[in-house]
């Protein structure tokens, strides 16, 4: 009989790839869904949609209790960058507690999505790993999802944390697309000067494979970095996006960046992160299979294709609108 995965965030960018890979490996996947359109997407991927959201605590507990593996990706921050940190943590921690309630005492795996930005960068710009110290109290990343680690393991749960790279890329989605959609209509993009902060990336397909490996082999209470490149400058990513969009890439003061894209994203563009994934490779046998790094993917891969399709769609839409006006006797 097939093992069952219950996943929150399964219709999203990363979650949908995990669902796709899990179904291909023979798992039966039940996925939280907030809308009819998400239901349709999940069914197309081969999953069973479960209507609700991460505030549906009784539902989360019930679905987790029926699953062999539980994966939490949904985050109240997604699409809501103005949410306060206190509200974000309250919602997310309540959802995690509800999932734990469904599987406590079973030693079933619970995978909680975290971030490589939880590790404070080293002053010498050397790489960090899962044992590197975190941020001091008061920093936006000082309160991480991992703070409940011991409490969950003490309840008989094989909890593992997946620290995603700041830039998960590929398949024309994630943060790169977010910046494309934001900067394209404005006619300009940019980076926070000097733009030399080095960041970390991972291809979405490599990340999805790691989630499933952790579900199979991950050790309880452990943290695993899902990272690949560790030396890509924030400026280089912004320049690649702007080059693909054929718009200027401006060097911005932090306050100007906040005006262009909001406080959270402006701060994001200043952060350093050089997190290595040696642990996942050595303990779980994970490997990087991406054919392109993030810069090449932006300039000549899925994001370049996305921009071409966008221009074709815009042209076709305008042509169609013009034809309709002509047919109706318009200008």
TrEMBL record:
Residues 5-225 form the NAD-dependent epimerase/dehydratase domain. Residues 116-147 are annotated as: Disordered. Transmembrane segments: none annotated. One of its GO terms (cellular component) is cytoplasm. It comes from Bimuria novae-zelandiae CBS 107.79. InterPro entries: Epimerase_deHydtase, NAD(P)-bd_dom_sf, NAD(P)-dependent_oxidoreduct. It comes from the Eukaryota. This is NAD dependent epimerase/dehydratase. GO terms for molecular function: aldehyde dehydrogenase (NAD+) activity. Pfam families: Epimerase.
